[in-house]
Amino acid sequence: MNLTPNKILKMKYTVVGLFESQNQAKELSAELEFSGVKHEDYIIYKTNRNSSPAQKQAFWKKVLGINKPAQSTEDDKLITSVAVYSDAELQEVKDTFAQNAAVKIYEFKDMSIDQAKDLDYIKKIVALRAKSHIYAMPAVSVSTGNISEGSII
Question: 89 with 36: CB under 8 angstroms?
Answer without folding.
Answer: yes
